[in-house]
Amino acid sequence: PRIYGLKMASIEASMACITILLKRVMRFVIGITLNLMRYLKTWDKSYKKKLAAPEVPAFILSLIHKKRSFP
Description:
Blueprint: H1 6-42, H2 45-51, H3 58-68
Helix pairs in contact: 1-2
């Protein structure tokens, strides 16, 4: 659609970002759910590897711990 004005363009861009984020989140949730269902049905180790959480880098963990610490 045609967009007139910066305000309407910013609204359209925000809606596009929200849509993309929702699509990615739903794809992630559905993928995890399907892998879990397949793993529980077959007990195949390949599905268990897909369900494993990725390793979080140490610098990200330190940032999280710094924000949680109380003064």
